[in-house]
Amino acid sequence: MANDRPDRLEALNSACCKDWSYDQDVCLTCAMCASACPVAGVDDYDPRKMVRMVSLGMVDQVVQSRWPWICTMCGKCEQVCPMGIDIADITRRIRSLRQGRQIPGILYKGLAAALETGNNLSLPKEDFIFILEDVAEEVAGEPGFEGFSVPIDKKGARLLTTVHNKLVNTHTEDLKPWWKIFHAAGEDWTVASDNWEGTSWGYFTGNDEAIKIMAGRIVENMRRLEVDTLLWPE
Amino acid sequence: MNIDHKHVAVIGAGVTGLTAADALAGWGVHVSLFEKTPFLGGHAIQLNCKATDACVKCGACVVEDKLHRATRHPTVEIHTGAQIETVTGQRPYQIAYRTHSPLVNADRCNGCGICFQKCPVPGAILQGHAPRVGPYVAIRRELCRYFDNAACTLCRDACPQVAIGLSSEAQAGVIRADAIFVATGFTTFNPSGKPYGYGRFRNVITSLDAERLLREHAVMKRPSDGRPAGRIAFIQCVGSRDAQLGHPWCSKICCGSSMRMARLIQSRQKDAQITFFYIDVQTFGKDFQPFYLNARENIAMIRAIPGDILRTETDELEVIYFDPETHASKESVFDIVVLSVGLLPSGDNGPMARILDWTPDESGFLHPHGSDRHPAPAGIYTAGAVTGPMTIAESVSSAEKAVFEMIRYLSRS
């Protein structure tokens, strides 16, 4: 915790989050969330503590803490919670209460770059296309995939897929299994050369406006390329 | 009191229905006792006496006693394998039912078990729980090969008592009853949807499975390989206090019964290490606290509900939970994990309420007798776990109270 000073009971304002549309008050502290959480125990994090702090109105303290940012937003806590508390949504709400530079550096930079250039790496379009075509050539060299090419900006394809930024950065090998499956299945698919990133940096930073912008760009790609079906493997 | 020649239908032959049948017959009332399954005694007859060096007041012995008492009255007429079809009229009610005559003659069967050995279909022959009273062996038509294509008669041919007859027809019947006693009990939560591998990992069992295991072997043996289980975990509140699933209530009996079971196991297997994962222990009744304090000294109590169970390569169970001592994720390995499953309203409650022209409460249980806001139709009485989770002792007293009210009603009408 950022603040180790004990809080006085009479200083708590439990009414301050009553308008939040989550069920934080019904927590039984059964620990199923903590037991299922992949990062529970890191920095003494326990989802129950965060839920209880929101319930008690200790919002400033929880916003200042590192806990909401340790969370990977996997949502397992929420899935197992017997009382149906929207724990991951609460986390997102708390994240949204930090603005600008108060957001942890890597997320802040990622969000700014994604909004400005369409992807968090600020990867220029021609570099993106070069990487995809380079990997496609390698695939085409493998037996059974002769003649394979990557259909970029193919109008009227059946399926548009987004790309995770690491697949055009450090993990280009991981593009291949997807593509091979498409090829073997005879799928009519495509990738957009602009705004190809699937990762929602708005979701990670609790920035609803950014979520809207990034999702809107994907929808715009679908309109432009006249594709009905989206594969969004995030 | 004018209760001569009165006739009551008791629906459900668990501990509540048996108590009611016995008490009503004791007043001289003629009783028709209807039971859906082939056996008498309901859930309670499947439970073990939990006494270790002294009685721990679990109530399991009461059921067998009630069973003996109810079946000995000549005025209690028992219909097993029965389904209530319609209830019409009032004072008296006309109750139409359907029943299959049993394939095993209970008077002839001596419970030798040869039919189990001969039967090629697992689960097609069921064994009851009270060998000395009423039906003990039953054949399930839906699984039996004879009823598929008349191909197999192995059990019938082998039975030394000539107790098995593989032909029976559904029979319809109608009785007239001055009042109806509804004691159809509860059902238990099926935990296959929880992240504990129930149904996939053979050594993950429910509390009811554990009762059956203990009746069969006296000690806890792993279902997968029959080895005695030295490390046993209990996970409480599985399917209780669960708003997601629509059952937010505490099932009331599980803390007590699981802890008694844990102590019973330890009294038979001195080296058994038992871990109890819980939210908070519900210690109902004035006698529970001393028992609980004693149990705590011998059981590892962990205040956390696990999030996952994995099966190791050596077929042990790895339970993953948030350890409240170290504030970190922890894995512990067990031989058997017992899921203390919640008590839920039976799926029969809806149809039963409709037949009686009544409505279940919001939870799906039926309203208890005497409910002001949702009074039952005249002459309809409910008692026991059909009205909500309760212990054996509470079921018995609730049955006796409802019978008392019913006798007053019958003497007036």
Structural description of this entry:
Chain A has 234 residues and is mostly helical. Chain A has two domains: 89 residues, Orthogonal Bundle (Fumarate Reductase Iron-sulfur Protein, Chain B, domain 2); 114 residues, no CATH class. Chain A is built from eleven helices and three strands. The relative contact order of chain A is 0.12. The longest helix of chain B has 21 residues. The mean pLDDT of chain B is 91. In chain B, helix 1 crosses helix 2 and helix 1 runs parallel beside helix 10. Chain B is an alpha/beta fold. Chain B has two domains: 179 residues, FAD/NAD(P)-binding domain, CATH 3.50.50.60; 153 residues, FAD/NAD(P)-binding domain (3-Layer(bba) Sandwich). In chain B, the strands form six sheets. Chain B has a five-stranded parallel β-sheet, covered by helices on one side. In chain B, strands 11-18-12-13-14 form a five-stranded parallel β-sheet.
Structural class of chain A: mainly alpha
* Strand elements of chain A, count: 3
Radius of gyration from the alpha-carbon trace of chain A, in angstroms: 22 Å
Global structural class of chain B: alpha/beta
CATH top level label of the largest domain in chain B? Alpha Beta
Instruction: Tell me the domain tally of chain B.
Output: 2
